[in-house]
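re: that complex we talked abt at group meeting.

here r the seqs, copy pasted straight from the sheet so there may be weird spacing, ignore it
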Amino acid sequence: MNITVVGRGRVGGGLARLWTGAGHKVTGLGRDGGDATGADVVVVAVPGHTIADALGRVSGLSGQITVDATNVYQERDSSFPSLSHQVKSIVGGPTAKSFSTVFAATYAQIPAQTTRPGNLFASDPAARSTTEQLVRDAGFDPVFVGDLDPGARLLEDSSGLTRALAAQMGPFFYRYGRPGAF
Ligand SMILES: NC(=O)c1ccc[n+]([C@@H]2O[C@H](COP(=O)([O-])OP(=O)(O)OC[C@H]3O[C@@H](n4cnc5c(N)ncnc54)[C@H](OP(=O)(O)O)[C@@H]3O)[C@@H](O)[C@H]2O)c1
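got the structure back, here u go
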């Protein structure tokens, strides 16, 4: 796939390395923006409060499948039910929320795990299979929580739990499975 990642920090840069290693063609854009024309997928990995500014500097956004990895650290824009809805209002394509509940600091340790770590995601139906593939190609096991509405907000609202757990054990992996899966 041709993937444009907006944000090339810990998440954006880390995912770009993982997907490049899996054979995708990845273009990373920083705060100066750039051109997303020709991208099959746009991935958003910028601070949540900078979404409008960051995407406002990217040309060629025209309804691509979009994966939003952002989290809320400052007050959210209450005119959108979730950050993913804000992203979707700008790019205009089918949208998913993923990678927001996993730690960039753990990416390098994925290959050393005996089982694939989980990665929760919520998605519009038309973005689901692409998101599952990108989650797998990054080395995670996709765990579907439902449609973007209300799934994206549920995932964003879970960040307090994630931080509480991280305060106890540091950056961590998780897995979800039906009985018999473990
Ligand atoms: N770190 C994690 O483990 C983790 C996990 C899950 C979700 N998240 C979420 O993922 C997103 C990215 O986190 P990160 O840890 O990768 O952040 P980061 O390392 O600070 O990188 C942020 C990236 O956003 C870019 N950017 C674009 N417009 C910006 C603006 N107006 N102000 C500031 N930065 C701007 C920066 O550009 P330049 O390269 O030009 O500086 C940089 O590439 C955040 O929403 C975060 O909450 C993070």
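couple things i noticed - Residues 7-12, 30-31, 45-48, 50, 53-54, 69-71, 73, 99-100, 103-105 surround NAP (CB under 6 Å). Residues 21 and 114 are 19 Å apart (CA to CA).
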